[in-house]
Automatic annotation (TrEMBL):
Pathway: Porphyrin-containing compound metabolism; chlorophyll biosynthesis. One of its GO terms (biological process) is photosynthesis. It comes from the Eukaryota. GO terms for molecular function: protochlorophyllide reductase activity. It is an enzyme of class 1 (oxidoreductase). Its EC number is 1.3.1.33. The keyword Oxidoreductase applies. InterPro entries: NAD(P)-bd_dom_sf, Prochl_reduct, SDR_fam. Belongs to the short-chain dehydrogenases/reductases (SDR) family. POR subfamily. This is protochlorophyllide reductase. Keywords: Chlorophyll biosynthesis, NADP, Oxidoreductase, Photosynthesis. Pfam families: adh_short. The lineage of its organism: Eukaryota, Haptista, Haptophyta, Pavlovophyceae, Pavlovales.
Amino acid sequence: MRRMEAEKKFGSKKLVVITGTSSGLGRKTARALLRTGKYHVVGAVRDLEKMETIAEIDEFDPASFTPMHLELNSFESVRAFCDQLYDFKGAKHVDRLICNAAVYQPSLPYAKWSVDGHEQQMQINYLSHFLMISKLMPDLAKAPDPRVILVGSVTGNDNTVGGGGVYPIADLKELEGLKAGARNPVSMFDGYNFIGAKAYKDSKLCLMMLSNTLHDKYHKQTGIAFSSIYPGCIAESPLFREKRPWFRKYFPIFMKYITGGFVGEEEAGMRLFQVAHDPRCSKSGVYWSWNGGPREGRGEAALEQDGQILGGGGAGGGWDSIYENDQSDKVLNPETAQTLFKYSSVITGAEWPPANQPKSPCPTLKLVGAMTSMANRREELKRMQPAPGMVGGGLAVGKSAVTVADTIVLGTASRVVKLAQNRLLGELPVTALTGSLQADAPSAPKPQRKGLLRRLRLRRAAP
């Protein structure tokens, strides 16, 4: 019954959830998806009245678009939205989750706090999306071609001019602020003083790291494609509404004529649409970007031939300009990513299924890994000798630790070798089998030793 109701409501359309569809990038992406006639879009927004007005202006098909209330400033609102979505969709599975909504507060001299007591930019941009993904992932895993797309930014990727050449730089450091709960008065994940622009950049860094972590943990077992994107600098976006007037006037000119990185909302929306729609973008663990400068003036003619953007050349000239961009060492740092995932789960209350990625059972690889770990550990313990000014038996402790490390790793190696032997040859029997040659063969006669001890005693007693 529920399946029949879902088929009646959605037909063969894919179900897409987009946060922040009432303006900017989310609005243009929803418009592009709806124009294909192949998607039902759920627009998750804070202001339903504004969304209804935008939907009327952009001529969204009411049968294919459903606005729902979502306040990313509150974890409770995120949970309520997910519950409402489950009730609405019934047996239909979510095919796409696009985490787009964001706020940018660079000019604030002090932090603004969310309903839950966290810095607003970090909760709206990252933490609430983190919680939402955890709530919807079990359902996404049941869809035939599920994708989770997180809108990152060049500002979160410090191997670029935009990310590494403009202060402040995104940097989570040791995540001391997050470990402390990142709650008022702790505003920054790194535990240091608040800088509005850095909080935004850090939130984008977190999103890109989250995409990689989810790919590593869950892609193979769920089939969900996790990716992040940078659609270009939308210099005229409402995202910059809190910037000073002179910035809003001259920044688009600078990006358009000096750097060439300017991208209009229409263009950026088509790029995000591509990652949600293009079969080539079903690849997981990717940070998508586009080559070249923008191509202006495409407007209504942008979508042709099953949604593909015709033409070649620059970023706006066709889908062929998309590429898998490199990510910075900070984004790819596995230790920081695991710490971020762990404490974000604690703060948001997110629950995740156990990661069950396939691992190689090959004993040789396990042995090589154990031996490599031993060598690395030995070198690190050599380095950890007493530094000048240090008092105590650090050196003795270091040597002892080396011995312990050797014992543990060699024991691991022995166990791996034994495991390989058992798999290849079978376990050795504890006792001989009945009827074996050893059991039936007569015992060899023992040599006669009578008189030997007596002769030895006589020799010793002789003068």
